[in-house]
Design brief:
single chain, 283 residues, alpha/beta, nine-stranded mixed β-sheet, 19% strand
Length: 283
Amino acid sequence: MTDPRTTVVVITRNRREQVLCTLDRLARLPERPPVIVTDNASDDGTAEAITRLHPQVTVLRTGRNLGAVGRNLGVRRARTPYVAFSDDDSWWEPGALGTAERLLDSHPRLGLLAARIAVGPGGVPDPLNAMLAGSPLGRTADLPGPQVLGFLACAAVVRRQAYLDAGGYHPVLFFGGEETLLAYDMAASGWGVCHSPDVVAVHRPTGVRAGRPAVQLRNAALTAWMRRPPAVALRHSLVLAAAAGRDPQARRELRELLARLPAALRCRRPLPPALEAAARRLD
């Protein structure tokens, strides 16, 4: 048996039955990837159930909820050149990881591959698929698909070294729309970020999580303050402020934006001019 090339990293919190279903699906993949689960301080017996029912899975217990940063722990623990991400409500189609490995093997600059997403039992295309496929950033000869600066976290395969070079997910954002900053930082480090419809992730969301749109607005503003020109950051902040006038959750997230802003500004590192121009094309 050949050594595995891709590790699947899963983050979860208090969704025991969902993550067990995901692990059942991953265990049936022909690639038989090693799996690492970061349990973000669940108190519903998630870690114990995984250890009992899936003893081959490595479980990392964080002790507190780290949000998206939990993925960083899994990537650091992985020992394969590539890492695929799943959440507790998503997994990979059979053969998808093998296809991703071939694309990464043949394109050395490729750092992150944004997959096509099939949603729900019927495999309905996620609207994000069309946005990624139609990216105005176009193609380059050394990447296998259109360049993008966004993706869905649970439908991405990364080159482990590229992820580590970029620093992984940022703690200031915690969760919700955290992908854009990572895409910026990978591209700024010289790695390619692109979409491939030949790699397919399955997403079975169990419902819309309350407050997510407001959190995404907050994180779009924080991302802009960390990487974009002040005028762009101010525009994003004003969008959240306008939403706060009619939405209690947006008011809470506006307060969170102000509380997190000093930490974000300490991490400010404007994008290189060519990358800023690309980001403006996507605005």
